[in-house]
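Issue 218. Parser rejects a valid record. Input:
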Amino acid sequence: MSLIQRNVVLASGSPYRKQLLEDAGVAFRVVVSHVDEDLHPHDEPHAYVRSLASRKAMAVVPSCPDALVIAADTICTWRGRIINKPADEADARRMIAEACDARLQRVITGVCVVDSRDMTTLSFAECSIVEMKPASAEQIDAYVRSGEPMGKCGALAIESSGSFVARYEGSYANIMGLPVERLLPVLLKLDA
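Output the parser choked on:
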């Protein structure tokens, strides 16, 4: 039996978001949004992820009547810059080297939940802090060759033993892409 009684739709193809939602005991189906995720590097990070999560949710809502639609977007920031996913292996190497040099980065996830019945919309942004370890060029090359950093914001795969994460503060689930600790109360409120 699902924790949430209403139909729930996850507007994301992320295997990590799917796993986090399953582990939280929520039954759902996936409808991937095909929203343009072009980066606007001058946007304030929290506003940027909330806006993109909202655009993703609203793109899926018309095809999901009587459902709670969840969408999310995750970015990393360091030294005041928004960092998205690496374009290729060279970009991943650059991102990892910069992150290890910067030492601290923020992982920010914007979440938007829309009740397609009446268009009630609740959104939030969650931030976690990640401290990186120093890494040699050889270590970074080996990590990139593993494929793990590809498709992840800031090329950060915290679940990997080779990710150069020294420690983190805040939500681990947020760093994985879906802060379920904050999401579940929102779903329960809309499910009432």
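Fixed in the parser; the record now loads. The longest strand covers residues 120-132.
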